[in-house]
Write a structure and sequence with these properties.
alpha+beta, Lipocalin, 3 domains, eight-stranded antiparallel β-barrel
Length: 389
């Protein structure tokens, strides 16, 4: 409800000031209209609190079900649910503080009402995000209510694989997609199924790929963008001709362009080493922005082979907030890609998001900034800079 905002507070104070200038008599005590809004706001807040509790229980069941369906042990499923609830608890504590910050002057007569309304708004936003990430129909974020099969009888893998976080072995690749460059993250799933995510260097965009590796040396992929299905194709495995002989996948994605004309795009994936060395690497502390919210604490380990690991503390280093692991690669100078997921008793749980970042200088200091791409389809700004002692 937008009425209880700082803008509203300032507007009321300006009206009062203008009234005094013209010597208009202002009623003493409470504003009847505002009191009615306060009562309405309180009822909406109670409804949102109850609904939020129900959504959390539904999401918890979805987390446990997802863990079981992907080969996890029952005990691990319980730990995953506990980690999910801890993460939501950390968010809830942040929400309470954020609502007070947005409410403005604590000495204002209606401050508590502003806080309540802001909490309701934040709860509703959170519930929508949770429903998209954990409760929506698989594949819906990519293409709406997609059919299980395409007209030619080919299985629609975005429908069968969906977008829920899955336990998977990740791989990182430099990608050349037609005339564009970027980074490609692949998830090797059970039953030789695969999911992939392409992030072009020159755009804030995510193209998702779904398919399988049922034949050795080949990957069949279906590509989906913001507007739905793009095309499909097969990539063939080979090795680079240099001394390292790294893995390369090459092929073509074919489909129709925006005008309905047949089009083909050449694709080349060059594998990047993503295994951290066994030697200990000292973590560097960073603080910054995540999902548009400030104060989060990052701990980053920059390994010599270009692999990057670390964690993101949702409490900002204060209290017992849940943390997310980070794992990725500094795939070229000034470019960074990281997968993020919850820590479950020291073990990495399913990846839930991907951070794609670039290095910039702000007032002489190095800052990593970019976007977080959530499994539910959301895109959120991210930035962090080194903590100075």
């Amino acid at each position: 409800m937008k009425i209880f905002t700082k803008t509203r507070c300032h507007r009321l104070s300006r009206i009062a000031g203008v009234a005094m200038l013209f010597l208009l008599p202002l009623p003493l005590g409470a504003d009847p209209g505002m009191e009615a809004e306060l009562l309405k706001s309180e009822n909406e807040h109670k409804e949102a609190q109850a609904k939020y509790g129900r959504i959390l229980e539904q999401c918890s069941r979805a987390v446990a079900k997802n863990w079981r369906e992907n080969g996890g042990q029952a005990e691990d499923g319980k730990k995953a649910v506990e980690a999910f609830k801890k993460h939501q608890g950390a968010w809830y504590r942040w929400m309470k503080n954020e609502a007070r910050f947005r409410a403005g002057d604590e000495n204002d007569r209606y401050f508590s009402g502003f806080v309540t309304a802001n909490e309701t708004e934040l709860l509703n936003e959170r519930m929508n995000r949770l429903k998209k990430q954990y409760l929506q129909e698989p594949g819906a974020a990519a293409e709406g209510r997609a059919k299980e099969y395409f007209p030619d009888g080919t299985e629609n893998y975005s429908r069968s694989l969906g977008n829920l976080p899955l336990k998977a072995k990740p791989g990182f690749y430099r990608v050349y997609f037609q005339h564009n460059r970027g980074v490609f993250v692949i998830q090797w799933l059970k039953d030789r199924m695969v999911r992939g995510y392409y992030y072009p260097e020159d755009d804030v965009e995510e193209i998702r790929f779904y398919g399988h590796n049922k034949k050795d040396g080949e990957i069949y992929l279906q590509a989906f963008g913001k507007l739905g299905y793009i095309g499909d194709g097969t990539l063939t495995k080979s090795h680079a001709e240099d001394e390292e002989g790294g893995v390369i996948w090459r092929g073509t994605i074919s489909g129709t362009d925006e005008r309905g004309n047949y089009a083909e795009a050449g694709v080349t994936l060059e594998k990047i080493d993503s295994v951290p060395p066994r030697t200990n690497t000292k973590a560097v502390a960073y603080r910054g922005l995540a999902e548009g919210n400030k104060g989060f604490l990052y701990e980053i380990q920059w390994h010599k082979n270009g692999v990057v690991t670390g964690s993101l503390d949702f409490s900002g280093g204060h209290g017992e907030g849940e943390s997310s692991y980070l794992h990725g690669v500094n795939y070229q100078e000034g470019k960074l890609v990281l997968l993020g997921g919850l820590n479950v008793d020291g073990q990495w749980g399913p990846a839930r998001c991907c951070y794609v970042l670039s290095k910039v200088k702000v007032r002489g200091a190095i800052v990593w900034q970019g976007y977080k791409y959530g499994q539910e389809g959301g895109i959120y700004p991210v930035a962090f800079g080194r903590v100075r002692k």
